[in-house]
């Protein structure tokens, strides 16, 4: 941008002295502007939500730079903006959501997005700073789960696995609190934004938790969940998501390949998550 503005000023200074020089400057200015635009378009912009995943993405970006691909990692602090930014073409691809979350976002936001490759699968758990076992929960205990339709259902399924509630037979991750058919401890279930659950542990008796957010918040040991779900269900793998016109973008495909095959990326993921994740590719 600074170069662009300096070219404009130079053009008008020359124009005041000589029409011929002004014409030459105009050609230089046009060429410079075109080069600047081309440079902007060649930068691959990747959006993601705040998470320890960031370091692995930055490592892949540095390796991509060494291979001639310029990558900018853009970090968002919530789970709504990355999709809005993708729709607005502020970014080229986002990496933060699994298929159920994506399908719900498409339904609610009217987005036309495509998942083109899987990434990591992150465990979720039930955490508490008040009890060590589920049977220690008192009648009427407060339990926090995610407030979005997909992750909230995943939390309810985990509560059912813990034996704390029963849901309608055959219900899947789309379960809501209305699908609870038995709640013997009369648990008070509150719903919070998923990224805020880690910070609720001082205020509730039990909370659905994401190890990545638990680690960022520093509220407890990410490995200390009373119960984890598994990483075998690949429907919960984080996806690389693009607009339909970018499905075959070679820059995106190249970056994904670098991310998936880089030993340094795997080392960063191991350091960040230990055994709380798995790869889905």
TrEMBL record:
Q: Where is the signal peptide?
A: 1-30
Q: Which InterPro entries match?
A: Lipoprotein_NlpA (IPR004872)
Highest taxon, organism lineage: Bacteria
GO terms for CC? membrane
Protein localization:
Membrane
Which keywords describe this protein according to UniProt? Lipoprotein, Membrane, Palmitate, Signal
Q: Classify the protein's membrane topology as the record does.
A: Lipid-anchor
Q: Does the keyword Membrane apply?
A: yes
Protein family according to the UniProt entry: Belongs to the nlpA lipoprotein family.
Full protein name:
Lipoprotein
**Naturally occurring in which organism (per UniProt):** Paraburkholderia megapolitana
Its lineage reads: Bacteria, Pseudomonadati, Pseudomonadota, Betaproteobacteria, Burkholderiales
């Amino acid at each position: 941008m600074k170069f662009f503005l300096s070219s404009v000023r130079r053009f008008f200074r020359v124009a005041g002295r000589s029409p011929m020089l002004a014409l030459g400057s105009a050609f230089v200015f046009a060429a410079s502007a075109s080069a600047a635009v081309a440079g902007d378009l060649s930068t691959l912009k990747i959006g993601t939500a705040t998470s320890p995943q960031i370091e692995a993405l930055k490592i892949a970006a540095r390796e991509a730079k060494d291979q001639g691909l310029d990558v900018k990692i853009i970090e968002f602090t919530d789970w709504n903006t990355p999709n809005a930014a993708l729709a607005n073409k502020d970014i080229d691809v986002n990496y933060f959501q699994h298929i159920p979350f994506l399908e719900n976002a498409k339904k609610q936001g009217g987005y036309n997005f495509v998942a083109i490759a899987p990434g990591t699968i992150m465990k979720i758990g039930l955490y508490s700073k008040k009890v060590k076992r589920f049977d220690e929960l008192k009648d009427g205990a407060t339990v926090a789960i995610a407030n979005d339709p997909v992750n909230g259902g995943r939390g309810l399924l985990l509560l059912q696995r813990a034996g704390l509630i029963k849901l309608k037979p055959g219900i899947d991750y789309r379960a809501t609190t209305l699908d609870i058919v038995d709640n013997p401890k009369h648990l008070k279930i509150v719903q919070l934004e998923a990224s805020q659950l880690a910070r609720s542990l001082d205020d509730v008796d039990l909370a659905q938790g994401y190890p990545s957010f638990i680690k960022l918040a520093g509220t407890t040991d990410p490995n200390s969940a009373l119960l984890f779900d598994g990483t075998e269900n690949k429907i919960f793998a984080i996806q690389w998501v693009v607009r339909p016109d970018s499905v075959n973008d070679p820059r995106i495909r190249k970056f994904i390949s670098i991310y998936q095959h880089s030993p340094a990326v795997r080392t960063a993921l191991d350091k960040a998550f230990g055994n709380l994740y798995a790869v889905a590719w």
